[in-house]
Amino acid sequence: MYGARDNKRFQLFIDDLNLPPSDEHGIQRCNELLRQLMDDKVLVTLQKPFEWRTIQDLMILSSFTSNVYPSANNRTLPERLMVRGQVIE
After folding, report:
1. Strands 10-14 and 42-44, bridge-based pairing
2. Do 25 and 72 touch, CB atoms closer than 8 A?
3. Per-residue pLDDT tens for 21-78?
4. Which residue segments constitute the domains of the chain, with CATH numbers given?
5. Residue 18 and residue 23: Cα distance in Å, rounded?
6. ω into 21 cis (within 30 of 0)
7. Strand (E) or helix (H) holding 27
8. Could you tell me the sign of the dihedral formed by the alpha carbons of 45, 39, 69, 88, in that order?
9. What span, in angstroms and rounded, lies between the C-alpha atoms of 69 and 83?
10. CB distance 83 to 31 below 8 Å
């Protein structure tokens, strides 16, 4: 189990959350990993033996640009990720 010590919270700040490019299926892999971390509080190692690592006391803060017209540098966020947080404009 990973987390902050002494009853504290680990704060993770992500700048430009909408910056990762989408693959050929329209998926932003970095944001899907973040969504999985927010939902399950678990990370999995990519090498054998695959290990599940539980994360506790994690607070994620992020910023992104929300324009009406998406461009190459300003992509929209997937709905699956947007329902996991609160948007303050």
Report:
1. unpaired
2. no
3. 778 887 888 888 888 888 888 888 888 888 888 888 888 888 877 666 656 555 677 7
4. 2-82 (3.40.50.300)
5. 14
6. no
7. none
8. negative
9. 21
10. no
